[in-house]
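RECORD TYPE: inverse folding
INPUT: structure tokens
STRUCTURE:
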């Protein structure tokens, strides 16, 4: 059946209607079949229970709500474009957002709030030469979603912060680890550093199940520093240079192991101690004398001890052998260890030696003779040095 509504041509049959010109409907219209519109359609409220197939542009000035999925397909790849009609975009103006939530969730409260969102937000006033925009990603845990990650206009990515200060800026929550690198199928976690053009592998960090490896692959040294100052450098030839500071051994009985270059029948190649200072050169004869001591220094390298002192005996008549306490216990009591008196006012015609004849004491004697007594050194002064091996 064909005819006109006003001046509009209408063709109607039992399954379809064709309108060849504009159609204005002042009230509700119910269409139970397909609606094929080749021109422009202006609708105030649309309730569609079935599928919509559009070959042209759909412009919605209000809210578009759909109870089903939206599928867009074009020959050159479909896109979704969110626009702002604001004619003056300034910092914090939102250009478009996508929100995710479950408004029908029966639990209510937090359950119906926005759970996540993606928003494009201007970071400056737009101009002919500026459209600076951040992409902000928000997620919720308990409460409305808040920004957790920002892709800035300069390409920097901030995770846990809202402003990146480098190409990648991370801030972990309290008491949480910041980065996890999960190993490959061969259990190797790896970070590789390249030159700007990506062609030269400069350095790498490998974490394996049996070794943690940090190395430079190019002919460049590796430097560790603090306060913007190089402290330790591993040279390209393998030498280790301490630029500034000390090598500190933090645990006793540990040190520098020289076993790689050892020869013969050595029992230990570990240099585990070095110290120097002033030692308490006191009377060890049992007489309880008060000695006048100066220039009393020692140096201990491993178990090798160097001692020196200048000692003056008080005036007295004690007949005990004169003995002075050592700073460290000797490995054995033997005259093979000791030294020489370099200055003395006992007898300028003789040479007096300092001998380690007891493990904790040094005595003074003429070569091949017994030790001087306190009475023989009464009011006298000796300056001596000695070397011996400590028991530990």
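DESIGNED SEQUENCE:
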């Amino acid at each position: 059946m064909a005819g006109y509504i006003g001046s509009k041509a209408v063709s109607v049959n039992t399954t379809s209607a064709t309108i060849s010109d504009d159609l204005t409907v002042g009230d509700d219209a119910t269409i139970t079949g397909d609606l094929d519109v080749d021109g422009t359609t202006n609708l105030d409220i649309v309730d569609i229970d079935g599928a919509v197939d559009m070959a042209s542009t759909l412009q919605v000035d209000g809210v578009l709500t759909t109870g089903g999925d939206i599928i867009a397909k074009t020959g050159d790849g479909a896109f979704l474009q969110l626009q702002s009609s604001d004619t003056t975009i300034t910092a914090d103006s939102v250009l478009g957002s996508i929100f995710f939530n479950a408004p029908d969730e029966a639990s209510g409260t937090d359950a119906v709030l926005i759970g996540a969102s993606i928003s494009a937000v201007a970071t400056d006033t737009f101009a002919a030469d500026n459209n600076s925009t951040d992409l902000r990603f928000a997620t919720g845990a308990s409460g409305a979603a808040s920004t957790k990650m920002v892709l800035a206009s300069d390409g920097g990515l901030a995770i846990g912060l809202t402003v990146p200060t480098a190409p990648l800026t991370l801030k972990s929550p309290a008491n949480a680890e910041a980065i996890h690198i999960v190993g490959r199928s061969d259990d190797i976690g790896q970070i590789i550093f390249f030159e700007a053009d990506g062609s030269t592998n400069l350095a790498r960090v490998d974490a394996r199940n049996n070794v943690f490896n940090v190395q430079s692959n190019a002919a460049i040294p590796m430097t560790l520093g603090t306060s913007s100052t190089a402290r330790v450098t591993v040279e390209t030839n393998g030498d280790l240079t301490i630029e500034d500071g000390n090598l500190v051994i933090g645990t006793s009985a540990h040190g520098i192991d020289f076993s790689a270059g050892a020869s013969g029948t050595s029992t230990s190649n570990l240099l585990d101690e070095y110290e120097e200072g002033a030692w308490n050169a006191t009377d060890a004869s049992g007489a309880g004398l008060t000695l006048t001591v100066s220039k009393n220094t020692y140096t201990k390298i491993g178990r090798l001890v160097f001692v020196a002192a200048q000692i003056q005996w008080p005036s007295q008549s004690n007949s005990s052998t004169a003995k002075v306490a050592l700073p460290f216990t000797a490995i054995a009591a033997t005259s093979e260890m000791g030294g020489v008196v370099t200055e003395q006012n006992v007898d300028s015609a003789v040479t007096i030696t300092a001998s380690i004849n007891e493990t904790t004491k040094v005595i003074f004697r003429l070569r091949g003779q017994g030790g001087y007594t306190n009475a023989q050194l009464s009011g006298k002064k000796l300056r001596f040095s000695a070397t011996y091996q400590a028991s530990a």
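NOTES: The CA atoms of residues 279 and 327 lie 6 Å apart.
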